[in-house]
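Reopening this one. Same input as before:
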Amino acid sequence: MGVMSFVFFGLMLLPLIIFLIWLIKKDKNRNYIGLVVLVMMTIIAIIAIVKIDTHFMEKNTPGMAPDSQAPSYK
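Same output, byte for byte:
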């Protein structure tokens, strides 16, 4: 795993999980606030990952652009 993976797990993922556990335990009436927050954050994360990965692959994959052609071996 790269350094950025450790930064993600250490600074973002663990506090998020702790916050969600605290939020769900605080909900005494079981109104599913924590579950709704978790689902919304998951959807936002999936959208962000797809957009960022698509942008990264378009910029950093030479020769794989949609308008590129296969090489001619004439």
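So the earlier flakiness isn't reproducible anymore. For the record, Residues 27 and 46 are 26 Å apart (CA to CA).
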